[in-house]
Amino acid sequence: MQNDDFLTATSMALRTILHLPDPRLRRQAAPVTEVTPAIRQLIADMAATMYAAPGVGLAAIQVDEPVRVVVIDVSEERNALLVLINPEIIATDGEQTLEEGCLSVPGIYEPVTRAAHVKIRARDRDGAPFELAADGLLATCIQHEIDHLDGRLFVDRLSRLKQGRIRKKLEKQSRLAM
Ligand code: GNR
Ligand code: NI
After folding, report:
1. Per-residue model confidence as pLDDT tens digits over 10-50
2. In testing the pocket of ligand 1, which one of 56, 61, 63, 148 has its CB within 8 Å of the most ligand atoms?
3. Which of 9, 14, 123, 142 is the most buried (most CB within 10 A)?
4. Cis bond leading into 54, ω under 30°?
């Protein structure tokens, strides 16, 4: 994936990221049937929004577009954009526990156990199908983003006790922000 194409081919706009407990984050995102100009614009805007945040991934539903589009860049240099349209996990293996955060759950970081290795099938930004094997942070990030497409957040995978503490902390944060 060439980042240059995004910087030159399309104008980009930052999109507003929804925060928990916004119910729009709980929708099931719909598959993309065709890579239209609107989808290309969404991808460019999502990449810009992710890099600006900064974050290592972003799902379209986080910017109030309930479609199955994800952008990811786990590289140090922030120059390896991965675009996933209609991503599906076709195989998993092992377990790993990594500290996760989420742009829709600001200020909360907790360890989450997920598959250590995933194989996925997806379409690229031209609609061409491809497969990808991932491990480490990329594997965790892919699973985190696919969760978003199904209306799930990483905090749903924590204990009820931690979920309660997080809800109180977020309520306090939003009171202070008013
Ligand atoms: O920026 C992000 N960092 C991160 C760290 C560990 C596991 C997953 C992530 S994704 C997150 C950006 C985000 O909210 N994507 O949906
Ligand atoms: Ni997230």
Report:
1. 688 999 999 999 999 999 999 999 999 999 999 999 999 99
2. 56
3. 142
4. yes
The token pair that represents 29 in the structure block: 């995102």
8 Å CB contact between 129 and 123: yes
Query: Is pTM beyond 0.85 here?
Result: yes
Q: How many helices (H) and strands (E) does the chain have?
A: 4, 7
Q: How far is CA 159 from CA 59, 166, 167, in A?
A: 24, 11, 12
pLDDT at 6: 54
How far is ligand 2, taken at its centre, from the CA of residue 92, in Å? 20
Active site residues: 145
Run means of pLDDT, 10 residues per run, the chain, 178 residues: 50 95 98 98 98 98 98 97 98 98 97 98 98 98 98 98 96 88
CB atoms within 5 A of ion ligand 2 belong to: 102
55 in Cβ contact with 47 (< 8 Å): no
Please answer whether residues 43 and 68 qualify as being in contact, where contact means their C-beta atoms are separated by less than 8 angstroms.
no
